[in-house]
Amino acid sequence: MNKTLIFFLIITGISMINKVSANAYKYSFTSIDGKIINLKEFMGKPILLVNTASLCGFTNQYEDIESLYNEYKANDLIVLGIPSNDFGNQELSSNDKVKEFCTTNFNINFLLTEITKIKGQNGHPFFKWVKEEAGFLAFPKWNFYKYLVNREGELVSWYSSTTNPMSKKMKTEVKRLIDNK
Q: What are the beta bridge partners of residue 103?
């Protein structure tokens, strides 16, 4: 092999390693039922992650998140709700209560994590990564921030609490991610 080809292969390999290690697939969460949810299990699928709270003024968005999930789950969309008590202490006191609330009031079928710390030193690393990838404004300032990850595990867009999950801009981006195989 000539030196140019070897150099190219080394650089390409390093680039590929960095891309894989610098994406959402390196993170995992604990489900509301205590099982590990490794985002790498969803390689090749678009993922919507939403930090949630049961007693928030935006809690009615659960219904629209479920509608979005139902509309696109046959097209590989994965939805992960991440309950947190970090913003206004608006989450219920236990995972069992959150699960019951979501099931009873919104018939949630998408994945839910356990109540998860987002802010501060003990905040979940996924949200620290969001801040590194997209900047300070992308880091959740309240409940119901939404993050779209493409089929390669890259953060491609984020939306604040006020953006409805069934809004035209979110549905357009979800459809683009689904169509981009």
A: none
Tokens standing for 37?
Answer: 């949810």
- Residue 102 falls in the annotated catalytic set: no
What is the number of other CB atoms lying within 10 angstroms of the CB of residue 174? Answer: 23
The pTM (predicted TM-score) of the whole model is 0.88
DSSP 60-118: THHHHHHHHHHHHGGGT-EEEEEE-STTTS-S-SSHHHHHHHHHHHH---SEEBPP---
Catalytically annotated residue among 56, 77, 115, 148? 56
Measured CA to CA, the distance from residue 113 to residue 99 in angstroms comes to 9
- Cα separation, 22 vs 1, in Å, equals 30
Compute φ and ψ for 60, nearest 5 degrees. -60, -15
- Ramachandran angles phi, psi of 26, nearest 5°: -85, 0
Read off the pLDDT of residues 129-168 as tens digits, 9 standing for 90 and up: 999 999 999 999 999 999 999 999 999 999 999 999 999 9
pLDDT of amino acid 10: 43
Backbone φ/ψ region at 180: left (φ over 0), alpha (ψ -120 to 50), beta: beta
The alpha carbon torsion through 108, 109, 114, 117 (nearest 10 deg) reads: -70
Burial class (CB in 10 A: 0-12, 13-18, 19+), 47: buried
**Picking from 7-16, 125-134, 162-171, which range would have the lowest pLDDT averaged per residue?**
7-16
